[in-house]
Specification:
Chain B has 18 helices and four strands. By secondary structure, chain B is mainly alpha-helical. Chain C folds into two domains: about 180 residues, Response regulator (Rossmann fold, 3-Layer(aba) Sandwich), CATH 3.40.50; about 140 residues, Response regulator (Rossmann fold, 3-Layer(aba) Sandwich). Classes of the chains: A mainly alpha, B mainly alpha, C alpha/beta.
Chain lengths: ~300, ~425, ~375
């Protein structure tokens, strides 16, 4: 093979970026769905992701204590329980902190959401302690891409799992939104909430459903990233949430393919910056990219331009 | 009626028990290199049980409770009266005089801790008033306000470190620098609307913080800048030993040294800055530009039709808001004596925004009241140190549900068409 | 009406302040020592090390009859290793009228807090902050019972140059005073010894993803990595390096040397080199203290446990020697005497640093044990 080393280096950074980007995308979908329907930024979404990680760790530790060692079983159980619990959290948060505030000034639910985010973060801190909790690697190994001598790119099995799960989830969600009855109701709500309500659709139920789906996706990201990095603490939700939100806006908030595209773009940009420039500046470049794109395409890459209503 | 509530009551109790039980009832425990689970103590289970029971009965009797709640002559009514009173000019002036007098006397009645807390409150009042221009009056959602605060603080700290600039010159420079940043940043982004503007300003706030963190050669990175000179009073220093060529306050006045003098001086200085801020903003509000801010918030399209240039008006609000953040930042740096990028995280922006919204957007008395509450509540909760931030978050949510219009909403005559 | 609000509020604050004051109203026979460090936050376990050491010392001294007839009392203050909170904590210590401080932990917290202590005449001994700058400002009230980065860096650098003998070394740090300080010292020693350092880069503390950095290290072909910082980041770097097949030696300062690094990195932490203060809990002379810690179910092996113990003891002995709790007299006594402590015989120089302190290189194992590589 005559491919130069620098190409493999680029491939490696691309793989790293896409891995991180996939999980940004999963969290970003939650933001985008909620925004698309009720036009509200759910700032507590990052904390849901964090809670998902914690639940996954608890499940994994519990199964290990019962002596269950089958990795696929553990992973499936972690996904299932974590998604169920975070869905319940998503539903409760919407019910308690957002539903009473709907319809007023849009700043009000935003403040409430920030408060909710602080509350959840500290709840977990008090309950679980602020220390890093670590878990041994469950899935190790991977495949090498490129020559055995010299530099080659590696793609770990864990990274493959992240890609595959992310892709399956996105296709599933797209199918759900475009084909199912409830998905159609969701789209109707996004189009015009009041009108949909008048047409006899239970909009409260649809909004709750949106929060539940978003929370479940955040849990998927939480489980995946928890297993990938192996370390969690109560503070991981904030930055992940911020990045995912950036990804959602980058892709055009309200658009699900946009959130995915934005997430991947953000992840790759960060990896390339860290790989060719310096890891210190990857966050600066990520936010600068956002600002640049918004300046030239004020509603994001795939977003629909806003229509001014009189 | 109770039967109708039984189902939601049971559901909510069960949901709470399960949610809290999993996350609070089981603890991940890292012993050496192994991860295991331990149950939390029985007191935690009791608390969870109590919370579930409370929710059950709350939901069961919610109709009765809300009837009871409505029957109460609650707090919500009182502020309304206050607002009416404050509309009478003479009373209004009297009220302000009282407020200012009380604020001036405060440090002499209180102890060192109380004065220090008062200074912190005044810093947040200044920040709240500044952000109030942008969010409350001009209706631009700015989530990166802390960036300008940081520019002001670092502007003074760096000037003092590299060029030996004193506090008063530094204050001016910090304000101008923050204004310049506000102007330059505002220029490209202000054509974005609503939430896009919010995220871009948030991005700017983060970029400023990360740059301060990374430009180690200039800003000392995460280690921050220490030894920032304290403010002086006409060249008099407030320290035990005056530096070269300076005179200290206690020597000049001829009293013995006490570190409390400086605390009181800082408080009064902060009060002066707040009063100047209030004065300037109130003047601006009566000028065409102030009217334009509010008009723009109410209806941008109508404004354009009336020949108001929205970009220029927005930009002026953004720049003036940033200037006050710069002043506050400079004062913060001087008071603290040490600053690091850690002090300018997003959560700080969120707190300032919460002050503005809690106060009732646009209302200056409201902002002052909210700043007092938001600063003093966490300090009072120091007793239960661990639960401080938890309660703070909970309070933000509950306040928004209880009084979404803020503590003292700005009232102005308005007509609305019912659609 | 409005006035009533304001007045009620001021009464509330005054009441709160009074409550604070009354809890610290000095009973004539206690001497308060503030224990300042992180109770919360990501490096809280280092705070624990410091607190259990200091509390044990207070307990033992009180059991032996206290200091000049007074009992010691430790009051814990949480700064979360955040410089802003450290300043707030320092102001609270001043408010409560406490004149002795053991802490803070992180150099970046200690530095701004020490400005206030010096100004207010409060005597501070840090048992964990290793940045040279802290004692380089001519302060009278600031001491420490641990060695300096400027000692630790060269110890590490020389060990790498003489024992490991790599050809290309990457030096990574977390940009904080502590980490970058040591990393810079290591780089300087290595460059002087003729070893190439192609990568000298900062990362952001709290980051989780280092895959891009590791790919870069692999491409540069480095065969040894020095990391200046704390264990949460190095643990992840080790773990991700193992997954990406970067098979080189790693080394770090005492901030990475605790059991959590093995919990995070697992097998990848095997063979990690760490510079640590001498393991005082292994010293036979301290056997009775180790037993006392174990009786309370506390771990005496943490790097800062014994230095914190020594710090409290030095304060107590200083008060005895000066025969007063006047901090200037105590500071004078500290400078002009030497003290027998579990960390050896301590004597302070003019700057407030220990005249003699040694770091030892250890090899870390995956089960979180360590073996000494140097004496």
């Amino acid at each position: 093979m005559a491919m130069p080393e620098s190409l493999y280096y680029f491939i490696q950074q691309l793989i790293n970026g896409l891995t991180v980007g996939s999980t940004y995308a999963l969290i970003a979908i939650g933001y985008t769905m909620v925004y698309g329907i009720i036009g509200m930024i759910n700032f507590a979404h990052g904390e849901i992701y964090m809670i998902g990680s914690y639940i996954a760790f608890i499940v994994i530790a519990a199964l290990a204590m019962f002596g269950i060692e089958s990795v696929p079983l553990i992973i499936v159980a972690a996904f299932a329980i974590s998604m169920m619990v975070t869905s319940a959290y998503g539903y409760s948060i919407e019910r308690v902190a957002y539903r009473p505030l709907r319809g007023g000034n849009r700043l009000i639910p935003l403040i409430s959401a920030i408060g909710m985010s602080i509350f959840l973060q500290n709840l977990v801190r008090i309950a679980q302690g602020s220390r890093d909790i670590a878990m041994p690697t469950m899935i190790s190994g991977g495949v090498d891409i490129g020559p055995h001598e010299g530099f080659h790119a590696t793609l770990s099995y864990m990274q493959m799992i992240i890609f595959v799960v992310t892709l399956i989830t996105m296709f599933g969600l797209t199918l759900f939104i475009s084909r199912s009855r409830m998905g159609r109701a969701c789209r109707a709500c996004a189009e015009d909430l009041k009108m949909t309500n008048l047409l006899g659709i239970n909009t409260n139920g649809i909004i709750a459903l949106t929060f539940v789906i978003g929370a479940a996706l955040a849990a998927i990201a939480g489980v995946l990233l928890g297993m990938y990095y192996g370390v969690i603490n109560p503070y991981i939700g904030f930055m992940a949430g911020l990045k995912a939100f950036t990804a959602a806006v980058l892709g055009g908030i309200g658009s699900i393919p946009g959130a995915v595209l934005g997430g991947l773009l953000l992840g790759v940009t960060e990896a390339i910056t860290a790989g060719y420039f310096s890891s210190e500046y990857k966050d600066v470049v990520a936010f600068a990219l956002l600002i640049l794109i918004l300046l030239f395409r004020p509603s994001g890459i795939l977003g629909r331009p806003e229509v001014e209503k009189v | 009626m109770m039967r109708a509530n039984l189902k939601p009551a049971i559901i909510s109790a069960v949901v709470v028990a399960v949610l809290a039980g999993l996350l609070l009832g089981i603890r991940l425990d890292q012993q050496g290199t192994t991860l295991s689970l331990v149950g939390a103590g029985p007191d935690v289970y009791w608390k969870i049980g109590a919370a579930a029971a409370f929710l059950f009965f709350f939901n069961l009797f919610r109709d009765q409770l809300s009837a009871l709640w409505k029957g109460l002559p609650g707090l919500p009514k009182a502020p309304q009266k206050l607002v009416e009173v404050s509309h009478k000019p003479a009373l209004r002036r009297l009220f302000w005089c009282f407020m200012i007098a009380a604020a001036i006397i405060w440090p002499f009645l209180s102890n060192r801790g109380g004065t220090d807390l008062g200074t912190l409150v005044l810093i947040y009042v200044m920040l709240g008033l500044g952000l109030n221009i942008v969010v409350g009056l001009a209706g631009l959602l700015d989530l990166g306000y802390v960036g300008f605060y940081a520019v002001g603080a670092y502007g003074y700290a760096l000037m003092a470190m590299y060029f030996d600039v004193g506090f008063w010159t530094g204050l001016l420079i910090a304000g101008l620098l923050a204004a310049l940043f506000g102007f330059l940043l505002g220029f490209p982004v202000l054509r974005l609307r609503g939430d896009y503007l919010a995220i871009v300003t948030l991005g700017f706030g983060e970029i400023i913080r990360i740059l301060l963190n990374n430009m180690t050669w200039l800003t000392n990175g995460p280690n921050g800048i220490g030894g920032i000179p304290k403010p002086t009073l006409f060249g008099l220093e407030f320290s035990r030993r005056a530096s070269e060529g300076m005179q200290s306050f206690h020597e000049f006045v001829g009293i013995s040294y006490s570190s409390e003098h400086r605390i009181i001086f800082l408080y009064l200085l902060a009060l002066l800055l707040v009063l100047i801020t209030l004065f300037v903003i109130n003047r601006l509000l009566r000028m065409p530009i102030g009217r334009a801010w509010e008009a723009l918030r109410e209806d941008e399209i109508a404004c354009r039709a009336l020949g108001i240039n929205p970009t220029a008006v927005k930009l002026s609000a953004f720049t003036i808001g940033a200037t006050f953040a710069g002043f506050a930042g400079c004062f913060f740096a001087a008071r603290q004596g040490f600053i690091s990028p850690e002090s300018f995280t997003f959560i700080e922006s969120a707190i300032i925004l919460a002050i503005v919204v809690l106060g009732g957007m646009g209302s200056q008395v409201g902002v002052i009241l909210a700043a007092i509450i938001m600063t003093i509540l966490p300090e009072m909760a120091r007793e239960f140190d661990e639960y401080r931030m938890l309660l703070f978050g909970l309070m933000m949510v509950l306040m928004m549900i209880w009084r979404p219009q803020g503590l003292l909403p700005m009232s102005r005559p308005h007509l609305e068409l019912r659609t | 009406m409005k006035m009533a609000h304001k007045k009620a509020l001021s009464q509330m604050i005054a009441a709160a302040a009074l409550a604070g004051a009354s809890t610290c109203a000095l009973a004539a026979d206690t001497i308060k020592i503030a224990l300042a460090g992180p109770v919360t936050g990501p490096v809280a376990q280092y705070g624990d090390m410091q607190f259990i050491g200091a509390k044990m010392a207070i307990e033992q001294i009180n059991k032996a009859g206290g200091v000049n007839g007074s009992q010691l009392e430790g009051v814990v203050f949480d700064d979360a290793c955040d410089p802003k909170q450290a300043v707030a904590v320092a102001n609270r210590i001043v408010n409560e009228g406490i004149s002795f401080v053991v802490g803070h932990l992180c150099s970046s917290s200690t530095q701004p807090a020490s400005d206030i202590y010096e100004e207010e005449g409060i005597l501070m001994i840090t048992a964990a902050s290793t940045s040279p700058e802290i004692t380089e400002r001519g302060y009278q009230m600031i001491f420490r019972t641990i060695g300096l980065d400027s000692l630790q860096g060269p110890t590490a650098g020389n060990y790498i140059a003489q024992q490991v003998k790599p050809s290309k070394v990457a030096v990574i740090h977390d940009k904080q005073q502590y980490g970058e300080g040591i990393a810079t010292a290591v780089r300087d020693v290595l460059t002087e010894a003729g070893i190439e350092v192609p990568v000298f880069e900062g990362i952001t503390a709290g980051d989780k993803d280092f895959s891009a950095l590791i790919a870069k290290l692999r491409q540069e072909g480095v065969d040894f990595v020095y990391y200046g910082g704390y264990h949460p980041e190095l643990g992840l770097i080790l773990r991700q390096a193992a997954e990406q097949g970067l098979d080189v030696g790693f080394m770090g300062p005492e901030g990475v040397g605790n059991t959590d690094i093995s919990a995070i990195a697992g097998e990848a932490s095997e063979g990690l080199l760490v510079t640590l203060p001498k393991a005082f809990d292994q010293d036979p002379a301290n056997a009775h203290l180790v037993e006392a810690f174990q009786a309370k179910n506390e771990d005496p092996s943490g790097a800062f446990v014994f230095p914190a113990y020594a710090a409290v003891q030095v304060i107590a002995d200083g008060i005895k020697l000066a025969d007063s709790t006047d901090t200037e007299a105590v500071a004078e006594a500290l400078r002009s005497n030497s003290f027998e402590t579990p960390t050896g015989t301590l004597a302070f120089d003019e700057k407030g640093d220990l005249k003699d302190f040694n770091f030892v290189v250890y090899e870390w194992h995956a089960d979180a044990t360590k073996t000494a590589m140097t004496e």
